[in-house]
Amino acid sequence: MNRQLFLLNNAQTSSSPRLLEIDRAEGNYLYDPQGKAYLDLVSGFAVSNIGHRHPKVVNAIKDQADKYMHLTVYGEFVQSPQVRFAQKLVSVLPGALNSVYFVNSGAEATEGALKLAKRYTGRGGIISCHHAYHGSTQGALSVMGNSYYKDAYRPLLPGIGFITFNEIADLEHITQETACVIIETIQGEAGIRVPDKAYFSALRKRCDETGTLLIMDEIQTGFGRTGKLFAFEHFGIVPDILLLAKGMGGGMPIGAFVASREKMDVLKDNPILGHITTFGGHPVCCAAGLASLEAILEEDLVKDVDKKEALFRELLVHPAIRKVRGMGLMLAVQVDAFQQVERISKQCLEGAYPLIIDWFLHCETALRIAPPLTITESEIRMACNAILAALD
Ligand code: PLP
Q1: Which ligand 1 atom is nearest residue 135's CA?
Q2: Does the beta carbon of 184 sit less than 6 angstroms from any atom of ligand 1?
Q3: Over the stretch 56-83, which tens digit does the pLDDT of each residue have?
Q4: How far is the CA of 335 from the centre of ligand 1 (A)?
Q5: Residue 188 CB–ligand 1 contact under 6 Å
Q6: pLDDT in tens, 297-321
Q7: CATH number of 2-53+300-391: 3.40.50.720, 3.90.1150.10, 3.40.50.150, 3.40.190.10?
Q8: 333-346: per-residue pLDDT in tens?
Q9: Long-range Cβ contacts of 136-143 (<8 Å, 24+ apart)
Q10: Could you tell me if the CB of 257 is within 6 A of ligand 1?
């Protein structure tokens, strides 16, 4: 009944939705209306880093809902959940990233950051990477590195160039006309591509030489997913603008672009209200985000990510697996064909130990492994057994 209504009245994003109906979710599991449990190996696409319905987050939401929900547009009233969350975020980021602009999603963080870079530098050029994904709105779509998803929606933003991710020779395309380079710290939808440290050093240097702002998209990599709180920490560089969303809200919708106060201040005048949003920094989402970040830090959820990655890598060995790519709990299991990925995902869903597993927007020949950071060793073992059985 619900499925029919879903197909009838809810807008569809493809003609083959997974149609799994979920009644509730808790910790590392989702439950269907019959009570069948599914281990979550996708985390709602890198959102549920601390698991589903973490009690600290649920309590923070209830407490804030008892005080107030929406009051006014972002940036006018002093709302303590925004103040406290921004202060906490700034405390875990490098000193140069001390001003947080809260928005509602990853794509909005991308939009805000692109505007800030153009406004701050007075330049129009934007450089992105082939196979990049930064969201689906017009500006974010313009910097997507895959024409298949863009061509039907042209014209998009002008002045955008594309370089190859992790290719130092291509950095010469960054010039004094380039306002910004927007780049994922680890490319997610491309099928988890980890760049070399030398690449990011060279990119940072080139941006500094040309006065170009470096926007690093940590929407998928942030909040502990790669074994550090933010993935740029692996590479020894600091972006000019940092993009956050997904795992930021402990399951609630929130995003942010973060820069220095000096840069962010250009949005204040000439024109006034350079970027505005009604719901950005929603107090309930900020309360949830703060509770989620506190849970990550207090429960030291990042500490064992490397060990869990190693266990996945040790167990995921099979003649059909070409490679396991990635970092931390952001992994891609490379096979040969989409048919295999589709079959394995379906079998995993229907197996004796049901698993939710998926693939990537720009890489349909790899399985996505992005469980909550709270996944246990025995759950990893059972999940890998189920995947290997499906591969057989
Ligand atoms: N940037 C990256 C790296 C993403 O993976 C995504 C979403 O998958 C986005 C941006 C867009 O985020 P949202 O779907 O919240 O707009």
Answers
A1: 11
A2: yes
A3: 999 999 999 999 999 999 999 999 999 9
A4: 24
A5: yes
A6: 999 999 999 999 999 999 999 999 9
A7: 3.90.1150.10
A8: 999 999 999 999 99
A9: 136/107, 137/107, 137/108, 137/110, 137/111, 139/110, 139/111, 139/114, 139/115, 140/106, 140/107, 140/110, 140/111, 143/110, 143/114, 143/182
A10: no
